[in-house]
Amino acid sequence: MWASSRIVWAVSRPSGTPANLSATVLTPTRLATKSASEIKKSISFTVETDGRLPSGQPLGEAIAQVDDATGGAPAYFMINCAHPTHFAGVLEPEAAWAKRIHGLRLNASSRSHAELEEAEELDEGNPEELGAQYRALRDALAAVSVLGGCCGTDHRHVAAICSAWLAAAAA
To answer: Which of 17, 41, 45, 78 has its CA 20 to 30 A from that of 99?
Structure first.
């Protein structure tokens, strides 16, 4: 949705969730006045079913390598295009690298990337199960504040993710 010269994000909330969510909206003019070093960036990694990057590098090592090479320049890191079961077992909640993960955009399907590429039909997984899997990650990834979906997800998945995450926060 566009409103005059502003970029507007539309966010759906499951019924009963708090309305006190806010976001900063940058106009193209305001964004153009910022230097590249002033614009906060996030880095998002995908992992295979063993929790490692496609190159075979462990997730924690990749985050540490980027932070070391850039002096910690990324605002935060994310995990995307992977199912929660692909990396839950490699998380180290007390490790510095795990505390740098602030976002998750995960797949509905637990299939590998190779299996998804070969699939003739979209694997939608189970929205409620995916929501519960996000909720299970909450303690290990306490800094996460960006939630979304990737392959196979739709509004049902996002609603289940938000409901489960908020329920965990309220508990």
So the answer is: 17
